Amino acid sequence: MSSSEIRYTINKATENEIRDHLHKCANDFNPPLYSYVDIDAYGSKIFVKSTRFEAWDNLELVGLGAVYYNDPEAKVAFFTHLDILKQYQGGRVAYTLISKVIRFGLERNFIRIETEIYPHNNAMQGLVSRVQGIFGVKAVFENISHPDGQGLKKIKVIFSMQNTNAG
Ligand SMILES: CC(C)(COP(=O)(O)OP(=O)(O)OC[C@H]1O[C@@H](n2cnc3c(N)ncnc32)[C@H](O)[C@@H]1OP(=O)(O)O)[C@@H](O)C(=O)NCCC(=O)NCCS
C-alpha cells in the first residue's frame, strides 16, 4: 500500500469503526491504551465530542486523530488522540493527519492546539519536531512533573498558530 492510496476524511467513521480501530491499535501505545482508559467508552467520547481526522485503506480505518476544538472563545484546542495502525506507520500518514488538524484550526482562527505526550514516546517527539514547519506553526514544550515530585510525567506540547502563513 503506497501512502498515495490512503483516503482522508473528517467525521465519517461510525462509532463502531472508531472503537474497532482503537482496539486494533491499543497495544501500540506505551503503556497500552486499555491500561488507562475503557476503550469502548473512550471511543464513544471521541465520537461524540471531538472532531475526527481519519485515514482509510479501502474500508479499513488505519489512522485516527481526534481534537476537541471546544473552546471557541479562547480559541484553544486539545489534541486528544493520534494513532496509525502498525503496518501503516512510517508512510507519513500521521504527518498528513496533523497537517489537516492544524489547517482545520487555522481556518477557524484557533491560536493554540495543545497535546500531551510521554517523554519516552520518541516517534511522537520526532513527529512534533517534523511538524513544526507546517504553515509556520511553532511547537513549545512544557514539562509536567509527577505531583509527588518523582520526575517528569509528561510533556505538554503547544502548537502556537499565531503569525502563520496559512493563507
Ligand atoms: C506516533 C505515530 C502516530 C507516528 O505515525 P507515522 O504515520 O508512523 O508517522 P509519519 O510516517 O507521518 O512520520 C512523520 C515524521 O515523524 C517522525 N517519526 C515518525 N516515527 C518516528 C520514530 N519511530 N522515531 C522518531 N521519529 C519518528 C519523523 O520525523 C517523520 O518524518 P520523516 O518521515 O521525514 O522521517 C505512530 O508511531 C503511532 O501510531 N504510535 C502509536 C500510538 C501513539 O504513540 N500515539 C501518540 C500518543 S501521544
Protein described:
The protein has one domain: 3-Layer(aba) Sandwich (Aminopeptidase). By secondary structure, the chain is an alpha+beta fold. Strands 1-2-3-4-5-7-6 form a seven-stranded mixed beta sheet. The protein contains four helices and seven strands, in the order E-H-H-E-E-E-H-E-H-E-E. The longest helix is centred in the middle third of the chain and has 15 residues. The structure holds coenzyme A. Coenzyme A binds next to strand 4, helix 3 and helix 4. The site of coenzyme A (COA) has 20 residues, from strand 4, helix 3 and helix 4.
The structure class reads: alpha+beta
The CATH homologous superfamily is named: Gcn5-related N-acetyltransferase (GNAT)
The coarse silhouette is globular
Question: What is the number of domains?
Answer: 1
Uncertain parts: none
Please count the helical segments. Answer: 4
CATH class: Alpha Beta
CATH topology: Aminopeptidase
How would you describe the oligomerization state of the chains in this entry? single chain
Please outline the major beta sheet: 7 strands, mixed
Q: How much helix, percentage-wise, in residues? A: 25-40%
Instruction: Work out the number of β strands.
Output: 7
The whole-number mean of residue pLDDT values reads 93
Q: Tell me the radius of gyration.
A: 16 Å
Task: Tell me the β content.
Answer: 25-35%
Spatial separation of the terminal alpha carbons: 32 Å
Q: What small molecules does this complex bind?
A: coenzyme A
